[in-house]
Design goal:
mainly alpha
Length: 155
């Protein structure tokens, strides 16, 4: 029975003929696609003097979306627990883009940099939050964390 089904499947598929890579229609450029439709490779966020963490970049969405921020934070947390720090950092940055005053995303982003042994960036994240949101109510906590990281960095 299996042999009969296999034979029918091959018979319906038609004759097998090798197709070289250059003859494959998928490898030929599509003349109907414009330059704007072609995929673009994206670079990471640009770091500037005013934004040392590289959070504010051109990919910042125009509208805030707290649900997407929560989702990005959850995925970042998943990566952080599995020690995939670069992926976690990307997701925490994305959460901050969707919700710029999201303190939990800043804390976890700083933690990811700390786990990656980049204490200078971990401190820069907290300092950036304090500069953007000076009356946030978490000033003392963040300043304590900054001192802890700086003391850890001095050892």
């Amino acid at each position: 029975m299996v042999i009969l089904l296999t034979y029918i499947a091959f018979a319906l598929a038609g004759p097998l003929s090798p197709v070289s890579a250059k003859d494959n229609p998928k490898n030929k450029p599509d003349p109907t696609r414009s330059e704007q439709d072609k995929p673009v490779l994206l670079r990471g966020p640009e770091k500037t003097q005013s934004d040392p963490a590289g959070i504010a970049d051109a990919k910042t969405p125009k509208e805030q979306d707290p649900r997407k921020a929560e989702y990005s934070l959850e995925i970042g947390n998943y990566y952080l627990k599995r020690k995939r720090f670069d992926a976690a950092i990307d997701r925490f940055r994305e959460a901050i883009q969707y919700k710029p005053n999201y303190i939990e995303a800043y804390k976890l982003l700083s933690k990811a940099y700390e786990k990656k042994n980049d204490l200078a960036k971990a401190v820069a994240i907290y300092e950036e939050y304090l500069a953007k949101f000076p009356a946030s109510g978490v000033d003392n906590e963040l300043k304590r964390e900054i001192r802890r990281l700086q003391n850890h960095n001095d050892k």
